[in-house]
Amino acid sequence: MERKHEKYERLIARCKAILPTATAVAHPCDESSLRGAVEAAEMGILQPILVGPRAKIEAVAAQCQLDISKYELVDAPHSVAAAEMAVQLAREGRAEMLMKGSLHTDELMAAVVRSGTGLRTARRISHAFIMDVPSLDRAIIVTDAAINIFPTLKDKMHIVQNAIDLAHALGMPQPKVAILSAMETVNPDVPSTVEAAALCKMADRKQITGGLLDGPLALDNAIDLNAAKIKKIDSPVAGMADILVAPDLEAGNMLAKSLSFMANADAAGIVLGARVPIILTSRADSVMTRLASCAVAALVAQSRRENAGKVTS
Q: Within its chain, how far is the Cα of 50 from the centroid?
């Protein structure tokens, strides 16, 4: 068993090789959100642009003895305006990442998905947890556990591709993707098994690229080699999955929280599929989890810069 947080520490260490990423922090008006942005900046992961009510942000900084004098502060009267201004900074290219402060996730995402002024792309927006499970030798990506409630097959195609692109940014050249269900055989009475099989065929036809897909797989034979051997599953993914694709939000959320509360895992979170990576943190997150979420987003932003350079050259 690895030392707890070792996987996250490796991600954070990788950020030392890149310049801090300009990040619009929407409404950092409580200690946890402001401290998270400042600590990530002090570690060289990001360069925050603090967006929100100036007096309130300065009061929180003074109360918590946080030095924000070196960071740009964009005044916005309330949380909704802060979300809109942060999104505008990303649209203008002044920020390469977006970070949630002390506002509701719905307020931030409403500005992100707004037609005409938001950050939508041709991709479906999805969420991914990068989970540091102490008993596993690798970080595990769980998707989608926070945004898409009942994703369609087309949505799942985008969710899978978003997760594969994330894995590439984290240094996995060909991630193993397990499409989860309650069983490992295709059963017409269980729609998630049929969709899993369809997603695998999409990968065969290059509609999904960059990863090895298999499914349907039950959770045990997705992450445990012995379970896969007992069930005689012949697969390059079974027992060694890097990405776990849940059939719907309820299943994904229960899986992520089970790992957190029953397996002592940490869960860094990121929103993918928008013009910029979006850092979604919770007030309950540990300092290490917040820093890991920032590091993951910074590595995604760096990967996008590199890929954009390849396209233009």
A: 21
